[in-house]
Specification:
- Chain B: InterPro entries: AA_ABC_transptr_permease_3TM, ArtM/GltK/GlnP/TcyL/YhdX-like, MetI-like, MetI-like_sf.
- Chain B: This is ABC transporter permease subunit.
- The complex is a heterodimer.
- By secondary structure, chain A is an alpha/beta fold.
- Helix content of chain A is about 35%, strand content about 25%.
- In chain A, the strands form 2 sheets. Chain A has a 6-stranded mixed beta sheet with strand order 6-7-8-3-9-10, with helices on both faces. A 4-stranded antiparallel beta sheet of chain A has the order 2-1-4-5, covered by helices on one side.
- Chain B is mostly helical.
- In chain B, about 80% of the residues lie in helices and about 0% in strands.
- Chain B has 11 helices and no strands.
- The chains are: A alpha/beta, B mainly alpha.
- At the A-B interface, helix 2, strand 6, helix 3 and helix 5 of A face helix 7 and helix 8 of B.
- The complex binds adenosine-5'-triphosphate and magnesium ion (MG).
- Adenosine-5'-triphosphate binds next to strand 2 and helix 1 of chain A.
- Magnesium ion binds next to helix 1 of chain A.
């Protein structure tokens, strides 16, 4: 669909990516190009390979075949290469995965410290800047367990941002949250997207997808069944499987 | 037969000497335990069979052998081999203290390997993944994330092992070491009073063990301070200021 000759920079490119868990094929040749500054939403039924796909991008899972290129770096699985790729890509998880034994501020500065970046003061200033951006600076000296789920997830976003990655991955960032906390996290993500971050988000928040996503991707059984701009994706889905999926998760608009 | 207070007091210096031996021995072996159990646990958890298997055999063998038997083998058995007597390590095996340290350490490390392994396994995988995703190299993730968290999960099991271990050192008297139990036993042999020296020794063990417990309780509180609720004082002062 996209014109290949457009002079856009491609931040993330996947070509024919295949991934097995033992004999089970979780990704059956997935191809996707994400332009700089683009926000992609990936949805699909449970077990369709959404997490596997985005975890292959930063090599939390190693793919079996196909090409993954992140900001010009062709992922090859060697330790040095993997580290280079991970510097380019931040990730936010469903379960927050904050370091429980250190404060919010230290959560944000730990990676900088362990990678010998910056001075203590510079790192803390940077951490405070990003904590402010996710509107949680006043909790900087608390421990994660003293925060609500939504606050913890915003800290997790700030922690990833402190590494100043040009690309961010989100794996169902709001699925573990109480409903009243979902919006505060989505709002932060929306701000990021509007600020020009390249984002790949696995989420079933369809309101967010409509408002923020440039393109939406529908996955099922380890394959991409449909890629379309948000509007077309929701209002004129082509594949029957996507139509069925949308009917199930958007019951109110099923017969519009 | 009654508890002879004047004998107890008269025995205190000798018993104290024995106690020092017990403590010395314990510190030595506990340090060896800390140094060796982490690499052993890593070997045991390694995907490489050439590492995992020897570690597993070590754990099974030394957990399954009574310390008493180990000490007999080390102190009396090994000396039978001429090549051991001629080797560089002979001074260690010829010395009862050396034998006791090695024998206790083999058993302690075998137990500790499983304590460390269990603690490492209880660190949520997602937290290590989040660290990797931030670009932190695997080695540093282990050192700065998994190990400190494992320490917090494992501290209670470790305390139990340490307390059990300290009481278990009483066995070293069989290789002629004058630890607290051996000294108390000596006083019994001399005075024919079994009650007084043994009860005094028991009280000394009790004091040491409970000091250790107190120490661990403090350490546990400090390590797990992140679970403590918000200190109430700050909110209270703020309310007071408003009022
Ligand atoms: N470590 C693993 N070992 C074996 N199979 C796995 C592993 N991880 C995922 N799978 C399988 O691969 C398939 C895709 O999993 P994945 O987690 O990518 O799905 P998903 O689309 O993210 O699903 P969900 O919406 O439930 O998160 C599933 O069938 C899952 O059972
Ligand atoms: Mg998933």
């Amino acid at each position: 669909m996209r014109d290949i000759s457009t002079p856009q920079t491609i931040d993330v490119s996947l070509r024919d990516v295949v991934k097995h868990y033992g004999p089970f094929q979780a990704l059956k040749g997935v191809s996707l190009e994400v332009a700089k500054g683009e926000t992609i939403v990936i949805c699909g039924p449970s077990g369709s390979g959404k997490s596997t796909l985005i975890r292959c991008i930063n090599q939390l899972e190693t793919h079996d075949s196909g090409d993954i290129v992140v900001r010009g770096i062709t992922v090859d699985g060697t330790p040095a290469n993997t580290r280079d790729v991970r510097i380019e890509v931040g990730m936010v998880f469903q379960q927050f995965n904050l370091f429980p034994h250190i404060t919010v501020l230290q959560n944000c500065t730990l990676a900088l410290r362990l990678l010998n970046k910056g001075t203590k003061r510079l790192n803390e200033e940077k951490a405070m800047y990003y904590l402010e951006r996710v509107r949680i600076a006043e909790q900087a000296h608390k421990y994660p367990a003293q925060l609500s789920g939504g606050q913890q997830q915003r800290v997790a976003i700030a922690r990833a941002l402190c590494m100043e990655p040009p690309v961010m991955l989100f794996d169902e960032p709001t699925s573990a949250l109480d409903p009243e906390m979902i919006n505060e996290v989505l709002q932060v993500m929306e701000d990021l997207a509007r600020g020009g971050m390249t984002m790949i988000c696995v989420t079933h928040e369809m309101g967010f997808a409509r408002r923020v996503a440039d393109r939406c991707v529908f996955m099922a059984d380890g394959e991409i069944h449909e890629i379309a701009p948000a509007e077309a994706f929701f209002d004129a889905p082509e594949s029957p499987r996507l139509r069925g999926f949308l009917d199930r998760i958007l019951p109110s608009t099923a017969h519009s | 037969m009654h508890f002879d207070l004047s004998l107890a007091i008269a025995s205190l210096p000798a018993l104290f000497h024995g106690l020092m031996m017990t403590i010395c021995l314990s510190i030595f072996v506990l340090l060896l335990g800390i140094v060796f159990s982490v690499p052993m646990a890593l070997a045991r958890m390694s995907k490489r069979r050439s590492l995992a298997w020897p570690a597993l055999v070590f754990v099974i063998f030394f957990r399954g052998t009574p310390v008493l038997v180990l000490l007999y083998i080390l102190y009396f058995g090994i000396a039978q081999f001429a090549w051991v007597r001629e080797s560089f390590f002979w001074p260690l095996f010829a010395d009862p203290f050396g034998c006791a340290v090695i024998g206790l350490a083999l058993n302690h490390v075998a137990y500790m390997t499983d304590v460390v392994r269990g603690s490492l396994l209880s660190v949520p995988r997602g937290i290590a993944e989040a660290s990797l995703a931030l670009g932190i190299p695997e080695r540093k993730v282990f050192l700065w994330v998994r190990l400190p968290l494992a320490l917090r999960y494992g501290i209670r099991a470790y305390q139990n092992e340490v307390v059990g271990f300290i009481k278990g050192t009483a066995i070293v008297s069989v290789v002629t070491i004058n630890d607290l139990t051996a000294v108390a036993n000596g006083i019994f042999q001399e005075t024919y009073d079994p009650l007084t020296p043994m009860i005094t020794a028991a009280v000394m063990y009790w004091i040491v063990v409970n000091l250790v417990r107190l120490g661990f309780a403090g350490l546990d509180r400090w390590l797990n301070r992140h679970h403590a609720p918000e200190p109430a004082s700050r909110t209270r002062t703020r309310k007071a200021a408003v009022a």
